[in-house]
Design a protein that fits this description.
The complex is a heterodimer of chains A (571) and B (332). With 571 residues, chain A is mainly alpha-helical. Chain A has one domain: Cytochrome C Oxidase, Chain A (Up-down Bundle). Helices cover 63% and strands 1% of the residues of chain A. Chain A has 16 helices and two strands. In chain A, helix 13 runs antiparallel to helix 14. Chain B is α+β, with helices and mostly antiparallel strands. Chain B is built from eight helices and 13 strands. In chain B, a hairpin with a 2-residue loop joins strand 12 and strand 13. The longest helix of chain B has 32 residues. The two termini of chain B are 38 Å apart. Classes of the chains: A mainly alpha (571), B alpha+beta (332). At the A-B interface, helix 3, helix 8, helix 9, helix 10 and helix 11 of A face helix 2, helix 4, strand 8 and strand 10 of B.
Chain lengths: 571, 332
């Protein structure tokens, strides 16, 4: 029996309607999710190219410290600003919540769509407008403030292109708020009756915690950015001392958003980790409640630790001490999650499929990212490492290690659901391995450069400063990382050109609801209504069936389309 | 135990992670670093090993599709792995807190040097009026840089005339942001002769990477000689300049003999705690600066009805600094 008959030629959300407007004006959360996905990937490529520019400039011998011109320095300063701003505002923040969250959330709830589909479309259109404004400024203007926009440099000492960049970020913020609001309402109101809070998949807990942060914290960055505009255009003193303002005040406002934003970036990645470890260990997730609660704890604590970015900013020393103590409170729930994931593997049936490879490597990456955070939460050592490459390496391990690897793992995991293609071949594994090795080669040397005092945001280093070796290895690593990520992307794109079998409904053995509808799903997500809701991690509900190269329910319902689609002529 | 262990790490030369320990409290910071480092290394090896061992031992090709039943919740284990890391974190916080408190509190006997940051150079001013510069041009260090005496507590008062900068000397393990509109400071006690790099570590514009200088640690005798050689005019120390400014601008309202004129007397006030409307304040560089530029911000109790006019725009940052030096000299 050929499994190719599974879902082939069936009408699904991808081929139900055609044409540009059927995508651009869609309210289907799945199509919006895919559009976010490709927009984010495009931005990621752009941010990545600027990262390469940074690394190539810093390659020892590439630029002569003695003769580097002001134009060259300015070009470098623009490059790190574009890299940082694009990666934060256009890639990591929307990556998992807006792209994967949009695609998966209603499916996981067994719902037809999010609570406010039109608001969802509006969010995406706002995002596009904000992104275009932002990218245009970054590429055409002369923006060199770094993604942090610290005044008084940003308000009084640099190019006016700050104005459009800030407006772009402001609009992006609204997109983020609307998406968060939509998800909160969807999770509250659209869960199927049998799905109590503690029967919700952990990815939804993570998305929920993230959405709460998005809604509560993003307005603050919006206000801060507006205040920058007000000061820059109307000369009203808010942050600039000559006008009677206080530059440290901006840092408080900025980090009051941007620290929680770190968890907007990381929490969804953690949610994906929980799904991956359960599914690919064929075991219930270990410590479900403590993982769920730690997401909420992280969301709450994230609001009271912003001052750890400012230990030496000139804020009062007492505040620094309090913020240091509070910061450690975030470390505990993060550690708990890691222990739970590892325990889930114990006595499981571990698959080395591509998504799980990303998942397992996150233990390594987030391990380093999280543990090096301890040095930065501790007052004595943070003073030494602040604004050095130690910090750069630390947050890349957290951002890339957890958020980006989680994102890529999630793409590979839900790729069959998105496009009906399973990508689990050696090439994809090579892409993963090179990315993992390249990433470590890029950023491990930066810890050492940083502990030796190498400052961030320097357009060049003199050889006598002694940082050349670390920069050399870091640039080498970036090349390997570039190769790895390119292969990972190529592996996905190639699947579009592989003819033949569409993916089974449930290729990996997940028990959450999105695996109970065909791949790709029909326009309205489910053909049976409502789908059966059980324990999201009771792996005994599904069993592997060789004839479909995937998993099927042990006790299928008679009207289950996934079963019905097995070779209809034989059924 | 803490002091003992940090002493064991003292006087070590450059190691894998750090440049040489050229200041008295560098060893303490390094001790805290290595404490966290070894705790973290142990935790890291444990989680990575566990992941690798489980992945291999329970690989699907060996176990099959349906693993045997195992517990998926254990309150006891979860409490253990929440509490044990917390204990270590409390220790980390405490070590960091102790060290931070010490390095944020300059000893009263500190020798004070002023560092002025501007795009893109450092300027250092010494109590006798000597001054020196530091920046990079054509890849070379320009200016004399910062001179400090060996084995003495030195406090560097930091000020910026334009944007945010940050003053960092990795060999001393000190770093502090330089914030326009207010004074910040760092202090250290250099214990190694030699030249060490100074970096700007807060992005400040195009030539941020050139805002470099060097600190020269010399013996006390050599320092005294250097100071004398670099004094431009023996009668133009900051205190002298401040005194002239004070006579011209301030004596209409403020006496320096303890008598109250329109405003309070200003002798013997520096470093004391004063009652102001709504609380108390320590009379320090920042308070004097604020009182000159924004006098109504913190008014001394009893003088609420004699508002002083602001001298913003009339007195430069240097003038304010000199007046501060003069007022300080009236206490010593």
């Amino acid at each position: 029996m050929a499994p190719t008959t599974n879902t082939l030629d069936r009408t699904n959300y991808l081929n139900a309607t055609k044409g540009f407007m059927s995508w651009f004006w869609t309210i289907d959360h799945k199509r919006l999710g895919l559009m976010y996905l490709w927009s984010v990937i495009a931005c990621f490529i752009m941010g990545g190219l600027f990262a390469m520019k940074i690394r190539l400039t810093l390659m020892p011998g590439a630029v002569d410290f003695a003769t580097q011109t002001a134009e060259q320095m300015n070009a470098y300063n623009n490059a790190f600003t574009v890299h940082g701003a694009v990666m934060v505002f256009l890639v990591i923040i929307p990556s998992i919540p807006a792209a994967l969250g949009n695609f998966v959330l209603p499916l996981m709830l067994g719902a037809k769509d999010v609570a406010f589909p039109r608001l969802n479309r509006f969010s995406y259109h706002l995002w596009i407008i904000g992104a275009l404004l932002f990218v245009a400024t970054l590429l055409i203007g002369n923006l060199d403030t770094g993604w942090t926009f610290y005044p008084p440099y940003s308000t009084g000492h640099t190019d006016p292109s700050v104005i459009t960049a800030v407006l772009g970020a402001f609009i992006l913020g609204f997109s983020s708020i609307f998406t968060g609001l939509n998800f909160i309402v969807t999770i509250h109101k659209m869960r199927p009756p049998q799905m109590t809070w503690f029967k919700m998949p952990l990815f939804l807990w993570a998305i929920y915690a993230t959405a709460v942060i998005q809604v509560l914290a993003t307005p603050v960055i919006g206000i801060s950015l507006l205040l920058i505009l007000v000061e820059k255009t109307m000369q009203i003193g808010i942050f600039t001392p000559e006008l009677g303002g206080d530059p440290v005040f901006f840092q408080h406002l900025f980090w009051f958003y941007s620290h929680p934003a770190v968890y907007i970036m990381v929490l969804p990645g953690m949610g994906i980790m929980s799904e991956l470890f359960a599914t690919f260990s064929r075991k219930p997730i270990f410590g479900y409640k403590s993982i769920a609660m730690s997401s909420i704890a992280i969301a709450i604590f994230s609001f009271i630790v912003w001052g750890h970015h400012m230990f030496i900013s000139g804020q009062s020393d007492l505040m620094s001490v309090i913020f240091s103590a509070l910061t450690f409170s975030v470390a505990v729930p993060s550690a708990i999650k890691v222990f739970n994931w590892i325990s889930t593997m114990y006595k499981g049936s571990i698959s080395f499929s591509v998504p799980m490879l990303y998942g397992m490597s996150i233990i390594w990456l987030f391990g380093i990212g999280g543990l090096t955070g301890l040095f930065l939460a501790t007052l004595g050592t943070d003073v030494v490492f602040h604004d050095t490459y130690f910090v750069v390496a630390h947050f890349h391990y957290v951002m890339v290690g957890s958020a980006l690897f989680g994102f890529i793992g999630g793409i590979y995991y839900w790729w069959p659901k998105m496009y009906g293609k399973v990508v689990d071949d050696p090439l994809a594994k090579v892409g993963w391995l090179l990315s993992f090795l390249g990433f470590n080669l890029t950023f491990l040397p930066q810890f050492v450069g940083g502990s030796k005092g190498m400052p961030r945001r320097y357009a060049a280093y003199g050889s006598e400063q002694g940082f050349d070796d670390w920069n050399y290895w870091s640039t080498m690593g970036a090349m390997v990382l570039l190769a790895g990520l390119s292969i990972a992307l190529f592996g996905l794109l190639r699947s579009f050109f592989v003819k033949g079998a569409l993916s089974p409904a449930n290729p990996w053995g997940g028990v959450t609801l999105e695996w109970q509808t065909p791949s790709p799903p029909p326009e309205h997500n489910f053909e049976i209504d409502p789908p059966t809701v059980g324990d999201p991690y009771d792996m005994s509900l599904v069993e592997y069936r060789g004839e479909v190269e995937g998993f099927l329910p042990v006790n299928p319902r008679e009207d289950d389309p996934c079963v019905a689609y097995i070779a209809p002529e034989e059924a | 135990m803490y002091t003992l262990l940090s002493m064991m790490l003292q006087h070590q030369k450059e190691d894998f992670f750090f440049p040489s320990q050229a200041s008295a409290n560098a060893a303490t910071v390094d001790f805290i670093f290595y404490f966290i480092f070894y705790v973290s290394l142990f935790a890291f090896i444990a989680i990575v090993l566990a992941t690798a061992i489980f992945a291999w031992r329970y690989r699907r090709s060996k176990v099959g599709m349906t693993p045997e039943d195992s517990p998926h919740h254990s309150t006891r284990i979860e409490i253990v792995w929440s509490v044990v890391p917390s204990i270590f974190m409390v220790m980390m916080f405490w070590y960091g807190f102790e060290d931070f408190t010490e390095r944020r509190t300059p000893p009263a006997d500190s020798y004070e040097i002023h560092a002025k940051a501007s795009k893109w150079q450092w300027e250092f001013e010494y109590p006798n009026g000597a001054s020196s510069f530091g920046f990079i041009d054509a890849g070379e260090y320009q200016g004399k840089g910062l001179f400090v005496p060996l084995g003495k507590n030195v406090r560097i008062r930091l000020e910026s005339s334009d944007v945010l900068h940050s003053f960092s000397i990795p060999n001393f393990r000190v770093k502090m942001d330089v914030v326009p509109g207010r004074y910040t400071d760092v202090w250290f006690n250099a214990i190694e002769l030699g030249d060490f790099p100074i970096f700007c570590t807060e992005y400040c514009g195009t030539k941020h990477s050139r805002m470099l200088s060097k600190v020269h640690v010399v013996s006390e005798e050599d320092f005294a000689v250097w100071l004398k050689e670099n004094q431009e005019d023996p009668n133009a120390s900051p205190v002298d300049k401040g005194k002239r400014l004070f006579s011209a601008k301030c004596t209409a309202c403020h006496a320096v003999d303890g008598s109250t004129k329109i405003g309070p007397a200003l002798n013997g006030k520096y470093g004391t705690i004063e009652n102001i409307v709504g609380g108390t304040v320590t009379i320090d560089d920042n308070y004097i600066r604020r009182s000159i530029l924004d006098p109504s911000a913190d008014i001394v109790v009893g003088f609420e009805n004699v508002p002083m006019t602001s001298f913003a725009g009339q007195l430069s940052d240097d003038d304010i600094s000199n007046i501060t030096a003069y007022l300080k000299s009236l206490t010593e």
